[in-house]
Amino acid sequence: DLGKVLLHPSFGELPQWAVVGDTFPVGCAFDESIVHHKYFDENPDHKNSTYNTKLGVYEEGCGLNNVLMSWGHDDYMYLVAKENKTTLPSAGLFIIRYHSFYPLHKSGAYSHLMNEEDRENLKWLHIFNKYDLYSKSKVRVDVEKVKPYYLSLINKYFPSKLRW
């Protein structure tokens, strides 16, 4: 969720609707599992015959890396990680990029666009989800106690200075 820095004035002060929320593919039909999907009826893509089919501009099994997603904090942080040449494994990048893609990992929508690597990484995303949205503890973490552990992970997977 570090991509939510896009809300901050130093990072563009984007409106909340442009940063936070569920993500979904564009360039193909809007699935009914997308939150508030009924509002897509007013989107011109909804009536465009190129975009309003199950596959739209994509091919079955093309892989999610070849699918254009709606913009949000997930894609921003994914791009930051890639730009900074992170050494995170493929599953880590997949989790960063698609953890708000609820139509996929909650409803199975758009799975026809996935390739084999996506299917493997989705297993890790399902594990991650147990610790994401609505899973927060009421117990306060002693930040100073856990800080060395998390700094070691940051140092392992990211350069000391990030390009945002």
Automatic annotation (TrEMBL):
Q: Which cofactor does it need?
A: Fe cation
Q: Where in the cell is it found?
A: Cytoplasm
- Any one GO MF annotation of this record: inositol oxygenase activity
Q: Give the matching Pfam families.
A: MIOX
Q: What is its main location?
A: cytoplasm
Which keywords does this chain's UniProt record carry?
Answer: Ascorbate biosynthesis, Cytoplasm, Iron, Metal-binding, Oxidoreductase
Cite the annotated pathway. Answer: Polyol metabolism; myo-inositol degradation into D-glucuronate; D-glucuronate from myo-inositol: step 1/1
The note on cofactor binding and number reads:
Binds 2 iron ions per subunit.
GO biological processes: inositol catabolic process; L-ascorbic acid biosynthetic process
Q: Transmembrane residues, as ranges?
A: none
Family annotation (InterPro entries)? Inositol_oxygenase
Residues that hold Fe cation according to the record:
1, 73, 99, 132
Known catalytic reactions: myo-inositol + O2 = D-glucuronate + H2O + H(+)
Listed GO cellular component terms? cytoplasm
Could you tell me the EC number(s) of this protein? Answer: 1.13.99.1
Concerning its family, UniProt says: Belongs to the myo-inositol oxygenase family.
* Name listed for the protein in its UniProt record: Inositol oxygenase
Q: What is the organism field in this record?
A: Genlisea aurea
